[in-house]
Amino acid sequence: MRKIISASQVKLADSDCLVSENISSHELMDRAASAFVGVFRGLVPDKNTPIIILCGTGNNGGDGLAISLLLQCDGYDDINIVIIPTGHRQSDDFAYNMQRVKERQISIHQLERTSLQDFDGLGLRLTESVLIDSILGVGINRPLDRALAEIIKMINQQCKRVVAVDLPTGFRCEGELDDDGTVLYAHEVISFQRPKLNFFFPESAKYMENFHVVDIGLREAFLAELPSDYYLIDSADIEEIYNKRKSFSHKGNYGHALIYAGSAGKVGAALIATEACLRTGVGLATVCLPEEERHALYARLPEAMLGSSEELFEGVKYSAIAFGPGLGRRASFLSDLFKKANAPLIIDADGLNYLSKEDTLLNALPADTVLTPHMKEFDRLFGPSENWWQRLQLARRNAQKFKITIVLKNRYTFIITEKGEVLINPTGNPAMAIAGMGDALTGMLTSFIAQGYSPREACILGCFLHGRAGDRLRLEGHAVVLPTVLLTQIPLLLGELKNVPFA
Ligand SMILES: NC(=O)C1=CN([C@@H]2O[C@H](COP(=O)(O)OP(=O)(O)OC[C@H]3O[C@@H](n4cnc5c(N)ncnc54)[C@H](OP(=O)(O)O)[C@@H]3O)[C@@H](O)[C@H]2O)[C@@H](O)CC1
Ligand SMILES: [K+]
């Protein structure tokens, strides 16, 4: 898992890198510039493209200058640099790179003061150029001055393609994103070493389209020691957590899941959740569906067993219970379930809606419960929030208070553990925005918990693989991914882990 660090921690990691490798800060800046250019080349392969590099006078601006040198060496032949004064003094590495740029034949336009009129007077071809934004990076420490904000608003109206260095100018790395703040909109952001936490909030879409993260060699061992509650899940975590199926094992070794789901007109939700559970490897799955809907289950999923509410808990020990997809009014069984359940619960959809209407039930949630709300379900459960930063903090408080895991679903799903850690899932794409996708996730999480994984492990595995299956289909050309099609990928993805599915 990759720890997400704050703007101030980045500076500590930079200093550590200089000391531990015994390099100068401009050498590290060259490394950052080179990593940036590595991605930039792929984004803008045409070397005749007019490029405008907007530089502030701190280290973000220093990066811009170092980037100009590399791009020129690479054969980009139409580069204009504009220096916009930021702050009280130039940083040393900015001054160092300025000296190097002056020794080359690159056009430099130096604004003596930050003013829209002066900027406009430069007559830059903003609409035809690719603009590299290196005005401000992690050093932003106050709202933008009016004059700089005016320049940025004009650029936002005119520029068709902006590539930001480290982060878009004006964007805050963490904390509440200011709704009225001016930010230089970036079509691409090339960020150093780690993505910034706020890249993962839906509000960031207003300020940026895509981001790339490049390694600049900061010491991972140092980053691992920094305190942070935010982590980005990566494929190595999946390899580490997932256990191969053992030889001589049988269905009894892989758990028995109960799927309490479906109602008249919403049987599909139960079928999808159950199919997901089975395809993720559970040993046994029992579905509690209304009796009259049983034919759909037998026709679609002969592997599943049907149970009725009365007999469900007689002498059966489940290893995980999913509750909610397509339940409608049947969700009122939740209070009884709390008394009868003998396994961790995964509550979704109508189960969450019922929970939000009955205040006292939240306090009665059994240990190890997983809630899987999307934003609206979350707000109904725990109250409204003004923005995603507030919502995430509210989720952390409630996960700790009730000792539960909350899977807050979005483009980047946040898994909030009972300790208040936030694990960010990077996989998934808009082709997956379709009915039934959440039911599939619920089935997968239930399956992993039934197989003996902790709620934390199950949520990491389930969210990552669910999104990865969708990403694979998207890459194969599917503009839309149906949940039942996505589920066909799950056994294949599991089979690819550690290359051998069996011990
Ligand atoms: N550290 C490293 O070794 C490495 C760092 N790297 C790069 O450095 C970047 C961070 O550089 P940084 O710390 O110099 O900050 P940066 O974002 O350039 O801005 C600072 C200047 O802006 C000013 N200022 C602040 N707010 C303002 C506002 N609202 N409006 C106007 N001005 C404002 C502030 O002024 P002051 O507070 O002094 O008045 C100060 O002068 C980082 O994002 C990455 O790109 C990479 O090369 C890798 C190695
Ligand atoms: K920037």
TrEMBL record:
Homotetramer. AMP binds at residues 409-413, 438. This is Bifunctional NAD(P)H-hydrate repair enzyme. K(+) binds at residues 60, 133, 169. Its cofactor is K(+); Mg(2+). HAMAP family: NADHX_dehydratase (MF_01965), NADHX_epimerase (MF_01966). Binds 1 potassium ion per subunit. It comes from Albibacterium profundi. PANTHER family: ATP-DEPENDENT (S)-NAD(P)H-HYDRATE DEHYDRATASE (PTHR12592:SF0), ATP-DEPENDENT (S)-NAD(P)H-HYDRATE DEHYDRATASE FAMILY MEMBER (PTHR12592). Keywords: ATP-binding, Isomerase, Lyase, Metal-binding, Multifunctional enzyme, NAD, NADP, Nucleotide-binding, Potassium. Pfam families: Carb_kinase (PF01256), YjeF_N (PF03853). Belongs to the NnrD/CARKD family. In the C-terminal section; belongs to the NnrD/CARKD family. Bifunctional enzyme that catalyzes the epimerization of the S- and R-forms of NAD(P)HX and the dehydration of the S-form of NAD(P)HX at the expense of ADP, which is converted to AMP. This allows the repair of both epimers of NAD(P)HX, a damaged form of NAD(P)H that is a result of enzymatic or heat-dependent hydration. Catalyzes the epimerization of the S- and R-forms of NAD(P)HX, a damaged form of NAD(P)H that is a result of enzymatic or heat-dependent hydration. This is a prerequisite for the S-specific NAD(P)H-hydrate dehydratase to allow the repair of both epimers of NAD(P)HX. Residues 234-497 form the YjeF C-terminal domain.
